[in-house]
């Protein structure tokens, strides 16, 4: 895809294999395996001496189209798509880490990411230090001679903590560490970590990338030499976490409207934040777009827009939070995010239930924290629903 094309053109035409018999959209190659013309061709393909498809766990045309489209949006050389965001993260970790290695991770990450790091990887003798990565000096202070990888989410799930990608990229490079950024909350439309120095970008494509609440998927973008290793080690042998061709087709279709969906998500989020900030029953609103938010300045520098994820704390804590979640009528009480529907959930007992009480406390995830994924509905309907629910507290 011509690098000079704009984002909207690349999200529609990127990765599109034009040499198809006249169909505007690519067919879905819902096939587990691919036929060889001869025994020699099969042997050559397995030996990597001839291009061509072999078996869908090793690569598939529908998945390749999505990988190329997404890599193009991230200004990355290559991409790999997976069955879930956790599949993307786990395949990446299993590709580049081995027993005896050490890694540094944000102390605030999605719950299952936290348990992969804090329990899963420790089974294989990979040591993890959770750090406040909004403090780049704290990262430097925790690097050891066996530190191989630095992992952040920015904005982080669910406190929206902002870490400085450019500054951390410099530290990672200086210490020959791989720098991985989970860009799920932003997508390439809002933030491009590779442009800022990251080595790899991971996504839960379940979220904004697909954007319609009907697929679980994941992705990694980055330099081809790294992505090839994830394909041939992490995916092929370690996790086998491959996406189905049909789900890859759905995510490719979702991506065609990424820019306009993100613009509407953010437009709605700003209106909801204006309603929540200063509300008499709310003690704090977490949103990178608020000037009072701790990471606001760094967010303004590295994000084109402040995003559409909002967290807030009620003055009367968890009980009030539970009452609020049971009182909303339009907002949907469900985990996940980035869908057309606005979703509301309670991290401490739901998406971050894997955290111990000490880890929750260290991460600053309070019992009273409520998280919103602002959807594409009419903003006034969202605000009216929150207003009537808050009035019941
Ligand atoms: C229920 C799921 C939620 N999140 C997931 C998630 C994943 C993992 O992505 P899969 O769920 O494996 O596609 C990876 N990275 C980030 C920043 C995430 O928020 C949720 O928070 O609501």
UniProtKB/TrEMBL annotation:
InterPro entries: Cys/Met-Metab_PyrdxlP-dep_enz, Cys_met_metab_PP, L-Met_gamma_lys, PyrdxlP-dep_Trfase, PyrdxlP-dep_Trfase_major, PyrdxlP-dep_Trfase_small. Its EC number is 4.4.1.11. The keyword Lyase applies. It is an enzyme of class 4 (lyase). It catalyses: L-methionine + H2O = methanethiol + 2-oxobutanoate + NH4(+). GO terms for molecular function: methionine gamma-lyase activity. PANTHER family: CYSTATHIONINE GAMMA-LYASE, TRANS-SULFURATION ENZYME FAMILY MEMBER. Belongs to the trans-sulfuration enzymes family. L-methionine gamma-lyase subfamily. This is L-methionine gamma-lyase. It comes from Agrilactobacillus yilanensis. The lineage of its organism: Bacteria, Bacillati, Bacillota, Bacilli, Lactobacillales.
């Amino acid at each position: 895809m011509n690098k000079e094309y704009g984002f909207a053109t690349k999200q529609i035409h990127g990765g599109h294999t034009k040499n198809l018999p006249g169909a505007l959209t690519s067919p879905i190659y819902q096939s587990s395996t691919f036929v060889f013309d001869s025994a020699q061709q099969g042997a050559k393909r397995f030996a990597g001496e001839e291009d061509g498809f072999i078996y869908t766990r090793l690569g598939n045309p529908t998945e390749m189209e999505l990988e190329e489209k997404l890599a193009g949006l991230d200004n990355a050389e290559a991409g790999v798509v997976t069955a879930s965001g956790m599949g993307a993260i786990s395949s990446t970790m299993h590709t580049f880490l081995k027993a005896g290695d050490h890694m540094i991770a944000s102390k605030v990450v999605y719950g299952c990411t936290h348990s992969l790091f804090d329990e899963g990887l420790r089974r294989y003798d990979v040591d993890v230090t959770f750090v406040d990565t909004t403090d780049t000096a704290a990262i430097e202070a925790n690097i050891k001679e066996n530190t191989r990888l630095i992992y952040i989410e920015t904005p982080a799930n669910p406190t929206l903590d902002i870490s400085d990608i450019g500054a951390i990229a410099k530290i990672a490079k200086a210490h020959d560490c791989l720098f991985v950024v989970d860009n799920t909350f932003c997508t390439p439309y809002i933030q491009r970590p590779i442009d800022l120095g990251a080595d790899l970008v991971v996504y839960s494509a379940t979220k904004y990338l697909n954007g319609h609440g009907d697929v679980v998927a994941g992705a990694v973008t980055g330099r081809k030499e790294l992505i090839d290793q994830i394909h041939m080690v992490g995916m092929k042998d370690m996790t086998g976490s491959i996406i189905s061709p049909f789900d890859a087709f759905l995510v490719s279709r979702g991506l065609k409207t990424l820019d306009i969906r993100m613009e509407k998500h953010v437009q709605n989020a700003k209106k909801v934040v204006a309603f929540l900030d200063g509300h008499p029953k709310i003690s704090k609103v977490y949103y990178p777009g608020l000037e009072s938010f701790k990471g606001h300045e760094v967010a303004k520098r590295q994000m084109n827009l402040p995003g559409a994820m909002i967290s807030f704390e009620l003055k009367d804590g968890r009980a009030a939070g539970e009452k609020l979640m049971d009182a909303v009528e339009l907002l949907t009480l469900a985990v996940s995010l980035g869908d057309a529907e606005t979703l509301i959930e309670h991290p401490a007992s739901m998406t971050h239930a894997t955290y111990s009480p000490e880890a929750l406390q260290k991460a600053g995830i309070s019992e009273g924290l409520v998280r919103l994924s602002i959807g594409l509905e009419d903003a006034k309907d969202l605000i009216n629903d929150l207003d009537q629910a808050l009035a019941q507290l």
